[in-house]
Amino acid sequence: MNPLRSLILAAAGNDTIASLVATAPLSRDVVRRFVAGERDSDAVAVTERLVGAGLDVTLDHLGEDTTDVAQADTTVRAYLSLLDALDATGLTAHAEVSVKLSAVGQKLDERLAGDNAATIAAAAERVGTTVTLDMEDHTTTDSTLGILADLRAEYPKTGAVLQAYLRRTEGDCRDLAGAGSRVRLCKGAYAEPETVAFPDPHQVDLSYVRCVNVLLAGQGYPMFATHDPRLIRVIDERARWYDRKPGSVEFQMLYGIRPDEQRRLAAEGNKVRVYVPYGVQWYGYLMRRLAERPANLGFFLRALATKS
Ligand code: FDA
Fold first, then answer.
1. For a substitution probing ligand 1, which of 292, 297, 300 has the most ligand atoms within 8 Å of its CB?
2. Residue ranges of domains in the chain
3. CB atoms within 10 A of CB 221
4. I want to staple 8 with a disulfide (CB 3.0 to 4.6 A). Which of 26, 177, 211, 291 is the partner?
5. Model confidence over 18-53: pLDDT tens digits?
6. Which active-site residues does the annotation give?
7. What is the DSSP secondary structure assignment for residue 247, as one 8-state letter?
């Protein structure tokens, strides 16, 4: 892994750095570029704007690694409140939610996390939308896929995320390429050991392309989450090769990253979904975005220095 990336990811776990960055008011443009805001109303306002521009949305209530039952319960209630707000504004045809199982208690008690995710999935189904389970570090992959299988028995539209940097993922794509399955394929954002993940970005890209082929050849609904121009070209070309009709595949990108490309792809008739994070716990998310693209770090630090 790029040493700067490792450094930033290490800084993400450093309490002093965390409190320095976290005390910068969220209203600062630089954070707002990647995070919708702290409240439901912020999330809804950004969703309305994106949907108005012809994009779909998945909303992530920020927070992870809950080690406390009450905190997990607060996260569940936050999702229920958000789903009500999306329903009230008529946005559920274009907006779903993404859930991190660690935020609803996975590290505390797997069964609790499964029950909490089911509560959110039931609420999503009631208002006519879906849940996608985010994927976290590799120690959680088996547990997350197990919970996904249970959820899909009752809520078959529940989606999963698979990470191309993991050596196991091509096999997981085969397992999840069946009819009705919704799979979001991304490169992967955590610092992982070489024993489980490809260390070289080129190997990750090759793995991504192999997974694209498996998912497009299957009967499921693939959601390709990447900003990488080369991969987007490959996906576009392979989707035509596999005779995928518009609407049977999605492109997905993060809020604030390559917004012009999001609009360009949508204008060409593709379904494009933007992953919009919101909530008070935005720090860890922001650090992962900075680690992906160290150029953003200079931009971020300059903005903090000039605005404080
Ligand atoms: P890559 O990082 O190689 O970037 C390719 C190009 O995209 C760059 O050259 C640049 O032009 C642009 N770009 C990428 N990141 C940028 C940034 N931060 N700022 C500005 N430009 C940038 N991961 C995970 O482990 N579990 C998950 O559940 C998810 N979920 C998820 C959902 C969605 C919708 C997306 C888009 C991504 C995720 N991810 C994720 C994150 C994912 O694993 C990955 O870390 C990022 O998408 C960056 O990888 P790219 O494929 O964009 O390629």
1. 292
2. 1-35+282-308, 36-281
3. 19
4. 291
5. 666 666 655 466 778 899 998 999 999 999 999 999
6. 134, 184
7. T
